[in-house]
Amino acid sequence: MGWSITSCNQASTSDVMLKDYGAEPTVINIDAYTMSNSNFRTALWTGVNLQSTLMSIPVGGDVGLEKHPTIDQFLRIEEGTAQVVMGDTETSLTFVKTAGKDFAIFVPAGKWHNIINTGNKPLKLYSIYSPVQHPFGTIHETQEEAEEAEEAEHQHLFNKNENFMTQELIQLSYATNALEPAISRQTIDFHHGKHLQAYVNNLKNLIQGTEFANADLETIVKESNGAIFNNAGQILNHNLYFTQFSPTGGGKPSGRLAQAIDAAWGSFENFQKEFEAAGVGLFGSGWVWLAADRDGKLTITKESNAGNPLTKGLKPVLTFDVWEHAYYLDFQNRRADQLKSLWSIIDWKAVENRY
Ligand SMILES: [Fe+2]
């Protein structure tokens, strides 16, 4: 026998402790937990790829009309009566079903949906999302609190009027040969004039007639996927890249940014080493980023292809492009040499303004 059971404690229905169990092995009586929950939303289990939350919708209330662009959702009603509506737009909710105790509801990514309590007692349900939707440990006592928190999560990290938010081909503030020898005129001509121009053209065509037709670049990057995300991400990434250089750049950051770098890496020189190592270690095409969380704490992230730390709720501050098109004409396969040379043209004032 391969099994050795040293203890066996059956989860009792009376042992309810409402909390977020995190990515830990967990066995609970989910019916008892769902019935015990009286918050609008309580995160119960937040793993790496999946999350479960408990919800209690007051009489006359609803979950709230919403759409998760990339998240599939499962819900199960443990008590109460509800009307479930879904549709392709906010105003055409053509799918309408009544559901009650023991009913399961499956909401595909991209569908507008709402669940309305039509009964005379609180609607008790639990939900499973993949990927994770709410921060670990989330508790929203009321729907109002839930909406405020979600608004904060969706808040823009950048002002729409920043020059790097343009969806048109960004104008360079320096001559195409002004960054030599770190970046040659030929590389700028191809990188800005051909590669970035292609992303700009592609995005224009792709978003026509979609929900992103009039959206700003940050919104598109955060909420799209597939080809739209790839092209929008590459535009934002390159805009941030090209606006952080100056022929009179170089040196070190100052002020708050310098302090935060020292706090995270001990010194600017250590940070440079770590940043270069991250860029060299990134397999294939992508971007290395210095990014800040909402408290200003800095981290280095590696993103493949068109990735941008915005999608993780982090604010991009500095980036090195490690796609071969960024350096191959000047440095061939010597990516490390390109990354080292970029420090000499960094416009730290522009970078500090993003922090
Ligand atoms: Fe690039």
- N to C succession of SSEs: HEEEEEEEEEHHHHHHEEEHHH
The total count of strands amounts to 12
User: Distance N terminus to C terminus?
Assistant: 59 Å
Computed CA radius of gyration, to the nearest angstrom = 25 Å
Instruction: Report the bound ligands by name, code or SMILES.
Output: fe (ii) ion
Main β-sheet description: 6 strands, antiparallel
User: Structural class of the secondary structure composition?
Assistant: alpha+beta
Please tell me what the overall shape is.
Answer: elongated
Q: Which percent range describes the beta-strand content? A: 15-25%
Largest sheet, spatial ordering of strands? 6-3-8-2-1-9
Helical region count? 10
Which residues sit in consecutive blocks of at least 5 with pLDDT less than 50?
none
- Tell me which oligomeric state these chains represent: single chain
Percent range for helical residues?
A: 25-40%
Average of per-residue pLDDT values: 92
